[in-house]
Amino acid sequence: MLYEYKFLISLSLTLAIEVPVLFLLARLLLKISSSKVSGALLLFAGLIASFSTLPYLWFIFPTLFNNIRSWYIVSAELFAFMTESIIYYFILRISLKKATLLSLFCNLTSFLLGVVFFYLLRGFFA
To answer: What SS3 state is found at 49?
Structure first.
């Protein structure tokens, strides 16, 4: 399968995971009311965050860390986490602490479920 197709699958999976997690965390855990941050704004922030970071993770970071997979994973995930924290902070106009928590849990959930997904379907994507 072409690398670009794997990217599109990864992007779809990331959005399918991170956007609902963002909603759940914002509303249930952090108690951010819909009068403060609308559902449309949460959706927009989730889409912008993923669309702003995932292409870098797939097309830029692999060239920077050509043969050092562990450094690639650590640096790429830190980049996504920090960048998305800033995006949530500015778009949602919430505290940096809340933005950081949202980003951390969204990215952690997405990363772990993505690893499981690609592991389970590794024969299909070979």
So the answer is: helix
